[in-house]
Amino acid sequence: MRLEAFEHFFDEGLVEAHLKPLKHGKEASVHLFRANPRTTDEDLVALKLYHPLNRRDFRDETLYRDGEFIKERRIRAALDQKTKFGREVQGGLWVSREWETLRTLHGRVPVPRPIECTDDAILMSYIGDEDVAAPRLHEYHHDDLYELEALWEQILRAIERMLYVDVVHGDLSSYNLLVWGGEIVVIDLPQAVDPKKNRHAQAFLERDIRRLGEFFEHRGLHLPWDTIASDLWTAWLFADLVTEELRGLPS
Asked: Distance of CA 177 to CAs 38, 62, 83, 97, 192, Å?
């Protein structure tokens, strides 16, 4: 565990104690901290710490970067050639993309509240309590088909709201959706793309829906998943996602 990566958050008076690691994934680990409620308005917070660059997988990064304009020629060349400097830039882009996406979605879509960011970590609100973190959807044991349908409706609503502000998750599945108190929370957004800029956004959206469809199908919820993805994309293209409720969301 890279204790030096936590120093900024202690120095800024945002956290008071490291309580325990919560999750160790391919790209990052997540840790539970006792927060300073005077500076964070939280009792507990989660810190997502990205792994060192040599332990991250950037194989599909060019697909997610499609449409992003990088002004400096030297940086573009380093990214394309995958030099050491290019990987450092990639790592920073990965973190900053998740940070900016969380900031865009917070208050519009159920996501953790972003609190503070460094080059390799994001501090955010924690979903769960001190004894147990909110389970991911694939770990969650639903009571019946009605509850499963209710969870899907929440997910669909979240996807629609993300599209409304020009965000496609890009890697959505039962592994990056939390369930707490019957409510869905969307997590893990470093690969999110802008469908107005990224030519692969429709394919990413279709893959997101297909993965979720497979999860729900295996649990008995049968819906026209291909049609759902197509209808969502068409609705976004024609701006039909703007309902009266969505118009009332903060800009």
From this structure: 29, 25, 34, 18, 14
